[in-house]
Amino acid sequence: MSVTVRFAPSPTGNIHIGNVRPALFNYLFAMQNNGHFVLRFDDTDQARSTKEFADSIETDLAWLGIKPDSIHRQSERFALYDAAAQKLKDAGLLYACYETAEELERRRNRARALGKPPVYDRAGLRYTEDQLAQFKSEGRTAHWRFKLPNHAQGDPFSFQRTEVHWDDVIRGRQTVDLASMSDPVLIRADGSYLYTLPSIVDDADMGITHVIRGEDHVANTGVQIAIFEALGAKAPEFGHHNLLTTIDGEGLSKRSGALSIASLRDSGYEPMAVCSLAVLTGTSQAVEPAQNLLELAGKLDFSGISKSAAKFDPTEVGQLTAKIVHALSFAEAKQRAAALEIALDETLWDAVQENCSTIADIALWAGVVTGPVTPVVAEEDTEFVATAKGLLPEGPFDETSWGTWTKAVKEATGRKGKGLFMPLRKVVTGLDHGPDLKKLLPLIGHQNTLDRLS
Predict the structure, then answer these.
(1) What's the pTM value of the predicted model, to 2 decimals?
(2) Omega of the bond prior to 396 within 30 degrees of 0, cis?
(3) Between 20 and 30 A from 260 (CA), which of 52, 110, 183, 361?
(4) Which of the following CATH numbers is that of domain 379-453: 3.60.15.10, 1.10.10.350, 3.20.20.80, 3.40.50.1820?
């Protein structure tokens, strides 16, 4: 069997790290199996879906290295959904309901008060001609529910336990009782589709073999398998992974912009740091940066995914990014820097590499070398800096110049340790941290150093 998977985001906002987790699981699973990865935009909500968000999602996925084999938009496939809906209606499996949201909520509350599950009672199958006329006079339009196969033969009001089973590729054997669930709404009162029916129709039409998604869809899977069967289609295999949350345990949301891929990219983080953390967090694997997606695919192991929610700590993205940057060769760093319009030579990279948390940090240290720099001199260090200026070795500087200078200043002032080195660093670089001055001072040069001591 040829593996075909899909990622189906709604283009109603920027995708975040929680969205990218299933995208990567699917993409890496396809890589493992020499399969096909479909990007399918769930844009049936045309009031909220925009081309701008769809374009940004493609940009975000490309930055991460995800290259779809094909791209589809549900807004271009309504004829298929209409045909499927009509097939269900003709079979008596999709029926009209006219209750308002307020009426449904009152019924649910009444059921809870009686100690009963708040399951829809299929009142839509009992309407009289008078009721239908009343609804019409009130200007109501119907929403449409799928009649679940959870009842005695020939009696839709005789609910009985009906188990749907599947072997989840992540969670193992799963069971859902359809009798515990309300008939799902597939078509809203305004005629628009909820995601369920279009998703099922597309999965069948596109030959999707595996649906890998968050564990919040486990209960939905039983319903969806029933709809696949009602349409005469073969259901794919399903896998449900744990969800990512913020470090405080809160769910991620498009609306809040929490940990959006765009914001992570703009912060200078490495794409493989984001990918590695998104995939390996909440698994039995050590969270270390993979060099590329092929290597990360080799680490993907569904059996090692925890059943508990996985907390995503954005500080770890920075830590992994720093590890990646520190391991770059000069040629790799030069290429990355050029993409940011930053000039880089090998001597500068050798001096600053270990102090670059992101590629963008190269520009910071290049600015320290070339200036201008605002020297920082504490009042109590004024005399010390004047003495140090007089002891500055003649140029040109080399890697021995820093040691020669600090030795002379130490002998003249009696200072040592931090009291010796920190005032010199702050006056020469304007900062209280940075690369080894043994390597940085030759790049700054004698004249620049002298000017900053003035």
Answers:
(1) 0.90
(2) yes
(3) 361
(4) 1.10.10.350
